[in-house]
């Protein structure tokens, strides 16, 4: 697209500015669920709680200022099986496992949230940075040995056979790694992206730490690119079906290169993207963004280089980004996305809310880029303004916080009605403070099978969400809908910061 201001484009620009100032278009066929509206939401409170959640997922030695006080130290010998220090990091969801792949994606999305919307977080910005650093400190440990990345701590099958607090876990803390003989370009590419993105966050407040993150990102990306292969090929029994690399490793290589380009502005990475982009799947269409599939995220990220940095050679990524936007517009003839009767984006039956939060983050971020470039998205002959994208994102956030048929918040601790029996070991069992006696592997199942509310609120946790008919049974055994995860919350942090800005 040319950037000349012809008379017709000048007229359009005036029209566009009007739209951005509050007259954004709305499709008559869009999903309407205002009848479910409960009240104006306190986005600042939701933001605070979405960040607090990460303290409940901490592994390792907890600091004196730990606010989620029903949690205690855990996993203090992690890594000892291979004589490495792998203490720290996050448990990914409701279990006691440390899966490196989703943890790295969580890290990238926390960093991206801060990069795009950190100035709007105000008093919560230090807490967001703390949550990010808890993860990057662990990723630095996991990548401290050349050509080796420690990608997982714990035996998932044995862990999932138990229902016990992380403070009590006695299942094997097995350590799994990738190296040049058993490569893992996907997880290495994601870790490189995470470290590069985080280096931007800490650049001004902690330059030495930022430099360490960036240099490690460069090294890890070099490993990912040189020794190519999916990590689940060599570790299938350990990582599948939990976090298999279903989309391959090509998306993570493009994603990692895109973040290194943004962090370094080094022409080496721009050239890498130009040469390898088509090979790594730039032409492939995807309308899903997740811990496994980064194609859409990379396209949105690279569209900024075209829109704002004026890197004309990357114009195709703006087109790809527009295609993604078109695919999620509710009610549009060209949309390929499904919505529940109540208006929630519905991608998958298991942990659907992760796709909701990742998508609405991309909508807000792309709206920011389009606004900065004073342009719009194009869907065939239709114009989609940044205001329209923000409106769609807001409806998704509001649904999550309670504007839905059940009038239920899907964030624990937010609003008068929220999930009380989430699929989460530490939350569902009495804390060490109130029950100092150890709860063994199988003893915890007596609590698991009850209808009693969880004794500990994992405040800020967003669960998998309702089914395709907006129904939510709130049952502990229903992990597909009742389990929280770090990668559900991470993109939501940025979105809530945007809506809490006023």
TrEMBL record:
- EC number(s) on record? 3.2.1.4
The UniProt entry annotates the active site at 423, 474, 483
Molecular function terms, GO-annotated: cellulase activity
Q: Which domain of life is it from?
A: Eukaryota
Q: Which Pfam families match?
A: Glyco_hydro_9 (PF00759)
Biological process terms from the Gene Ontology for this record are: cell wall organization; cellulose catabolic process; response to nematode
**Top-level EC class:** hydrolase
Catalysed reaction(s)? Endohydrolysis of (1->4)-beta-D-glucosidic linkages in cellulose, lichenin and cereal beta-D-glucans
Indicate the secretion signal residues. 1-26
Record's keyword terms, sorted: Carbohydrate metabolism, Cell wall biogenesis/degradation, Cellulose degradation, Glycosidase, Hydrolase, Polysaccharide degradation, Signal
Query: The Glycoside hydrolase family domain covers which part of the protein?
Result: 43-496
Give the family this protein belongs to, as stated in its UniProt record.
Belongs to the glycosyl hydrolase 9 (cellulase E) family.
UniProt-recorded name of the protein = Endoglucanase
Q: Which organism is it from?
A: Arabis alpina (Alpine rock-cress)
